[in-house]
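Many introductory courses stop at the sequence. We go one step further.
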Amino acid sequence: MDEELRAIREARLRELKQGGSSSAQGQGGAQAQAQAQTQQILNQILDANAQERLSRVALVRPERVKAVESYLMQAVRSGAIRNKLTENDIVGILESVGRDEQKRNTTRIIFDRREKSALPEDGQSDDDDDFFD
């Protein structure tokens, strides 16, 4: 019984190391592969200080880092990035993403005040309380 249990555990461990065969692991594997590909591209276009800056920001604001990463990936696909980005470049991108988030999150209340006309065409004022006469 002990040997069977050990064999099952070893087989399961091998299966997990190979990525598994279940659909949930397949979806997770595809997502992990896409994340690894994104990370590889970011490693190619960012210098060490820029990578460190992004990792520090990810601890505090992970949604902002995801926005920066998607912006960088789009820039790479369009060919806009030719040199490695420095920490100052990343700071500028982070600030612009922060401004965009702030614009989306600010609430604006607009009062549309229109001038009242002097009197309607029939010559009577609309201010009369017809209900209480």
